[in-house]
Amino acid sequence: MIIAIDADSMDTAAADHLLYELIDAVDQPVVALTHMVSGDDRPHVAVSLTSAADLADPIREIVADRNVGLAITRAGASEPELAGPSRLVRGAYVAAVEAALGTSGRVVRWPGHEQAHGVLPAAELCTRCGIDQLEGIGGVPVEDDTLVDTLDFLRPVRRDGRLVLQVQPAAGDVLIPFELQHQQNCCTDH
Questions:
Q1: Is 145 exposed, middle or buried (0-12, 13-18, 19+ CB in 10 A)?
Q2: Is 117 in the same domain as 157?
């Protein structure tokens, strides 16, 4: 089952907040992603949850009093269940399709995320955390024995059905995740 929600989140921090609220409420293993929604008057971020469990009712309860678009897809269903304002339904539908195809999305929760601790060789990080590929930003080489300091926080992206963690060089001859847990806002004054 895939449940996608477009709450018109203006940034990934707001979308992450919604995802954590949903994850805490359903207490089930999920793959949780954020998805950039473009094509209307202003880009924003939608979210999706994929689970083997039927989470539709608890999720509906959580978002019942909110202005959101909702797209729910179930295995074997001929079409998704859609609800909410049309602009937000469109964003939720896009997120549901991306989650189903595995073509894109920023991954917030997945099986293996809880193993992302400490400094690990690249090959071990991939095996332990369920990452399919490490990608060095700017062509930085990543070998199986390259050390990666997880900083206890990973945010891979989904690309072509694979989990890809982007990494960058850091002090001490290690690589660190490109997306850090506490992001510095850039260009907020213009």
A1: exposed
A2: yes
Same domain? For 117 and 159 the reply is yes
**Residue whose pair of structure tokens reads 């062509």 in the numeric block:** 139
C-alpha to C-alpha distance for 173 and 117, rounded to whole angstroms: 18
Question: In 3D, which of 3, 174, 151 has the Cα closest to residue 72?
Answer: 3
For 15-34, how does the pLDDT look when each residue is reduced to its tens digit (9 = 90+)?
Answer: 999 999 999 999 889 999 99
Q: Up-side HSE of residue 151: CA atoms within 13 Å toward CB? A: 16
Residues 143 and 96 grouped into a single domain? no
**What is the C-alpha separation between 122 and 144, in angstroms, rounded?**
5
Q: Model pTM?
A: 0.88
Length of the chain: 190
